Amino acid sequence: FTLQALHQEDREGVMRLGKAGCLPLYDVERFLGPVSQNCRGAMNASLDYVAKDAGIRTVVLTLRPSLYLTAAGGNRLVADLAAAPAPPAQVFRAALDQTVGRLEQAGKDVVFVLDWPELDFDPKTCVDARPLRFTRYRQRDCIMDRTKVDAMLPFYRPLVAEVLAPHPRAKAWDPRRALCNERTCTAMLDGVMMYRDDHHLSL
What we know:
The chain contains 7 helices and 10 strands. The chain is α/β, with parallel strands linked by helices. The strands form 4 sheets. The chain has a 3-stranded antiparallel β-sheet with strand order 2-1-4. α4 runs parallel beside α6 (156-164). The longest helix has 18 residues, at 88-105. It is globular. The termini are close together.
């Protein structure tokens, strides 16, 4: 949605494909406990469509690593139903390498957007949304300590960098460049709220 907003006045078209709760990668099924999320077929079809469309030049991939790369909530990633279970990060590494490679072979540039900081507070507390109040509103700083942000899934960024390194048409973009300085990460820029909840960005 952010890319659509950025390109709404130029000639670059933006298409959003995928399925909620699924990684944007080839040949990965996701389970929550014993229940399949039916990701593999949907995502393979979306990626095949992108690969075959000569008019699509750049593919942007993004995901929420805390949702997919841990075992929280019974999360499991499976690339081969007949194989022994593997850690989610291992399945993710192989699937990302395969997906980027296949998109490159199809002539696409690939941009992998690393995850933006997950907030440890509700951003709605950063603004006074009440039209009328009987107590004084105390605005919070709306920032997180950078060390806390960097400590979340510390293996994730090096893993992505390692996978993308041999792919000449792939690069990563880190939103921390826009939302963080050396000491803190913020939920607001120039007085504008950048989040709609603790993880999703706002337009």
